[in-house]
Amino acid sequence: MKTRNVEFIMAPRQPHYVGDGFRVHNFIPGSTRTTMQRMNPFIMLDYNSKFHFEPTETPRGVGVHPHRGFETVTVVYKGKVEHHDSHGGGGIIGEGDVQWMTAASGVLHKEFHEKEWSKKGGDFQVAQIWVNLPAKDKMSTPKYQTLLQKDMQKVSLQNENGYVEVIAGNYEGTQGNASTFTPIHLYNVRLKKGASLPLQFPENYNTALLVIEGSIIINDTEQVPTNYFALMENKGESFSIKADEDALVLVLSGEPINEPIAAHGPFVMNTREELLQAFDDFNRGKFGYLEE
Amino acid sequence: MNSFRFTNFLTSNIEIDQAMIEHIVQKCVTKIVEKGTFLLQQGDICQHTFFVEHGLLRQFSIDSKGKEHIIQFAPENWFISDRGSQYFKQPSSYFIQALEDTTVLLLDEAFILHLSKVSPAFLEFNNKLLHNHILHLQTRITQLLSATAEERYLHFIKMYPDILWRVPQTLVASYLGITPESLSRVRKELAQKQK
Fold this sequence. Notes:
The complex is a heterodimer. Chain A is built from 3 helices and 24 strands. Chain A has helices at residues 36-39, 115-120, 272-283; strands at residues 6-10, 16-18, 22-28, 42-53, 61-67, 70-78, 81-85, 90-93, 98-102, 107-113, 122-132, 143-147, 153-156, 162-168, 170-171, 174-175, 184-191, 196-200, 206-218, 222-224, 229-232, 238-254, 262-264, 267-269. In chain A, strands 1, 13, 14, 17, 18, 19, 20, 21 and 22 form a 9-stranded antiparallel beta sheet that branches. A 7-stranded antiparallel beta sheet of chain A has the order 2-3-4-11-6-9-12. In chain A, strands 5-10-7-8 form a 4-stranded antiparallel beta sheet. The model of chain B has no long low-confidence stretch (mean pLDDT 93). The chains are: A mainly beta, B alpha+beta.
């Protein structure tokens, strides 16, 4: 099995606010080396690194906005997120939970810090990934998968060295609960200091790591500190990550969707005509209605 | 390259040679402004016409009660300026502000006048832009005087297909001259018709 090396390591960029509740570093498609085409099917990654929000009576967040043509995956590490959508769905996800929303043909949704959590304030830490959909599924019916921490599939490492939480795809035969449209592996990996984990994905799968807590060393050579992002080459399959302090790492690997991308804001389609149609459908209320 | 859209716009709208287009583009200053930046303040004399290469601008006034009224949005490929202030050298009644981080090209009034003298094609182009602007303002006046909230909204989404998701609804309501509640009602009714 050929070793897969690091292509490059990216420091967190200057954070910006999405609404007033998400203070994020953008990793995808923020640099010329992490374009949507390069990272496909992972077409966006925003990370709200651990940030303390003061108590407030008015929950912070982002108001009603549309999505079409992809899925949004929200991974909560600290805090609580409340969401509502134009299909009548809604809910609260907390520490360790994941919300996998298939926007597909179109939803309006809003995401806020949960009301009671907002009143107390506290540390907030969340990653949001946009997962592209293949052309044939872009206009499918929207749906939700709420993946709660208590139901998450976990693979424990030997000697209590940590565990791999399989959100989607599989690790060593353990299958995550999320269903996906194209082959994707998404894990949260927790490693004790000194522990090491071998990982292996098909060579053509676009593969990256985001260090949520602590610090890791990839292939015994490349150190990746907290809040840094590592993109792996598409040569070779296997690599190792070793914690040089207790670490939590988000691992993404997915088969590229080799189709054209036409993206503008919250709409990710295959052609410009489809984009214009998306604007028009949204403007005309075809995504439904949701109170601000 | 920060003038891709501007170059394209000129190429497809003026019958002049490439060298002249390059000359125009080179003479323009490109400015990258952060969200919130003012390009024109009320009381100042407007010195430039702005072309939006990337991002979004708005032109608005503030009334005696402090309420904002949006006259125009300018997303990518739009020109925006206070033509009256610019031509007659009068203090402007308007603000022009970036609603997103925006890349704009600045066309200086003296340069526009110079080009109009030396190039009949540019003169015709500028004349067309001016008449387009008059047409736009006439339609705005008619809409504001006589159209229903729904008619105004439907006209707005035709004119600006990709603005609604980029700005708070209060700004769209301000442009339409209706309350945010009315806009919300119009959008809700439209969504119900789609079912």
